[in-house]
Amino acid sequence: MPSSKSNLVLSSDISNVREMAISNERETTEKSITSLIENNGYQDSVYINAAKIFQGIRNEKPEDKILVRYGNELEPSLPDFKDECSQRSSYELAFSALKYQDLLENILLDSCFYPCQSIPDELTSLIVVMLYDLQDRKFQARQISDEEESIPEVREVEHYLYSFKTKLAAALARCRIKHDALSIEYILPETIRKQEQRASALPLYAWINTCKSSPEDIYRELKREGFTKVESVSDFEGYTYCLDKHCSDVLVFPASLKEEILNLELFTHYKLILQDKSRSLAVHSVKALLNMDDDIIVAHMGSRMTAAHMSVLSNQSTSKVFVCGVKSQAKELEMKELFTRMECGNIELLHEDFTEIGPADQRIQKAKVILLLPRCSGLGVSNPIEFILNEHEDAGLLRDLSQGSVAEKKLHILAEQQLLELMHAMRFNKMQAIVYCTCSIYPEENEAVVNKALESGVEGSKVQPYRLSPPLWCNSETESPSDIFFKMEPSEISNCCFLAVLARQRDPAEIMSVKDILARAAAKGLLEGLDIGKSSKREEKRKKKSKVTPQRNVPKDTWVQSNIVEFLNREMIPIDTNSEVSPIKAISDISQKNMKQTNSSIQLKKITKPISNSSLPGMLKNTPNLSSMSKVFERRTHIRKPRAEDKMVVLKPVEIVLPPVMVPYFNPQGNKSQISTQHYYYSWIEKKSSARDFIPSLSKRVIKSKETLPSTMVKHSRPWI
Question: What is the set of active-site residues?
Fold first, then answer.
């Protein structure tokens, strides 16, 4: 036994060593490829665009501490990007220069490169970003392609930097010795270093555009491309992917396959959309609150992919997604073109900001849920460049992300704006829910904002107030549905996400309607095989007057009920438990509807038990049993209390033809009727009796037909009068 244990330990150690060797080999390969790309440098247009971005996000120092001055000629807005790759490279270069701004300025001063008489201050931003790239290339010359379009300013700055490369390298070495750092990465704060480590390992999340392709087709296409489906992120190895544990339409890919994934036809044709997971969580939270024909308001224009994802998950024919804040006509055309390529046909663009739209606006009267994604500090995001590009956020967020913290004054301003937008959303009386989502790690932007909005009572006293409700899609082992807020801390598998669902309380006096719950269940495919018909007005009134008792008979399709029990329990969370009609009971009643309809004719033919002959006078025992007056008497004397089974039977109209009533003729002189007494006997019970006491007996004799009646009988044209 000890030898076997040692063999197991030895084999596990060998496997661990192999895995470490493979991972080290991959890292070495990736670093070598990256270094080759970086050593080649960038195109001139990337440098000039990065300088424009840096000019707008750089850290400004007090006037008495400014040693390096930046001009104002380079505008930070509207950089001209050739393609998406050029845009990403420009932002990455600007963000890297921003993180090392103090170090780069010290190198310029220590090497006596600055001030430079031949280069104006307006080009200082270009000097800083090109200096960072030069030291990252180990002060090697940039390889310039003959086809590349040259920019005079870039070539001029590059020439002066390269002429000072020895002094610049010496100044960099002195700075590293001063900070006792092996590389410039160790000069950064620890929070920034951890953020960069998380960003390098963060998986890629992509949701399926079901308007263009089904999940099954996506899986088959990925299999043809060589991808293998695994259970979780921990099983990633090579070309693999897995399903997200929270969102059923989100796929997760390894971070190392980013370049290969983006070149796949699935991504270029918008069948798979790359986006941060936090936005998919917010969209699915809205989806869980929607009815079949509800409209949605997306309060911010920046998140285009979020609006598209919301459109994909909603009903394209009956629901609309309103996106606020599309002020520029160029932006509107760009977004419409994007949504057309993605085949999202139910998105409406509004020019006004969300806070400028009032509750009485006729365009949004059908809207029931608001998706609120306010601008936040974003310190929970590990890969800020991807977040800004995908969500079209302001590049000014990079200033705080480069420092690893947010100033208290700015945090207060952000929280005030978030509270203002959330309180404005609560003023819409017809709204039923609000989904509030941020990527911040600060409680001041998360729980504090939500609690202050709930305490404000801005919704008024005429409508039901809002209360916190857990997201209805919580189904994982780590997050409990009983949690009020949904929170994900930044880690190596996801960015930070804070999610709050504010649902309006139901009126206790309001009778719960099952229609919307059944519609949601039918949309999810949980009611297959059940015939859901529309109840008549008479049945609805009857249900309001009396409570429905539980059914005694177990329906045959109990397997259908077991599939929808979890769905109905989730739907009942925001609903008052004192409501009169239970959705589960209504589903059970509907499942028994077809069986009761088939048996309805048999139930109508049942005859109530006749009155005992001993309770009638002796002269009435021989009266025929088909008399209409006898039937009336039986119905009145055998009235029973309605049962729940009878209430649920859908009655069909039946035409009943009653036989004519033959009223005997009495002689005023006291003689008996001329009708033969062999078959008919009548008598008055009392002297002072009404017509109700004149009762025909339930005789068991055989009834003769009308042709056998004596001709001496008095016939009336209307015998029932």
Answer: 439
